[in-house]
Amino acid sequence: MRDGTFRAAAKWVARLRFAADLRAVRAWRRQRSGPTFDLGGDCRRCAACCEAPAIRANAAVWHLRSARAAFLWWQRAVNGFELVEARRLERTFVFRCTHFDPQTRLCDSYETRPGMCRDYPRGLLDQPAPELLPGCGYRPIAPGALRMLTALDSQRISDEQRARLKRDLRLE
Ligand code: SF4
Ligand code: SF4
Known about the structure:
The structure is a single chain. By secondary structure, this protein is of the alpha+beta class. It has six helices and seven strands; from the N terminus they run αββααββββαβαα. A three-stranded antiparallel beta sheet has the order 2-4-3. A two-stranded antiparallel sheet has the order 1-7. It has a two-stranded antiparallel ribbon with strand order 5-6. Strand 3 and strand 4 form a beta hairpin. The protein is elongated and about 60 Å long. The protein starts with a helix and ends with a helix.
């Protein structure tokens, strides 16, 4: 169901908080672990990221009954995410989004979609080997890719080897 005024306002406030948290966490990670992957490509609007939105919970939300209930209530009441599965090993909740129409593959509240929908797949870029959803038009580009491409171009290797190295090392 399309967002009304109340849900749109609540999501706007949540987005501000989400963006502030992301900025802080990513700055901290960059300082601690150095540069992460860059984001190449574009969104193809395939909606693969709408099929089963997933959120990794922190320890408090996962283990404390009241925190978990409040979190899931918020996801259902505000974001329109209905719980489908709780994956214990990954500490991750997987949802069905009630705004997603699988026939048209459109979001009925795209203008008010949550921060996590706007951010995908940037949250994966600090992983050692980011795996994006199949069909996603974005791709991770390794830190220092330009320098490595220049070095690779000066090597005496076949075009096939060059192409494979570029792909495996995520240089473009
Ligand atoms: S709110 Fe919209 S963009 Fe986000 S998962 Fe649902 S359908 Fe996709
Ligand atoms: S999976 Fe990637 S290309 Fe498809 S809609 Fe989401 S961000 Fe865009």
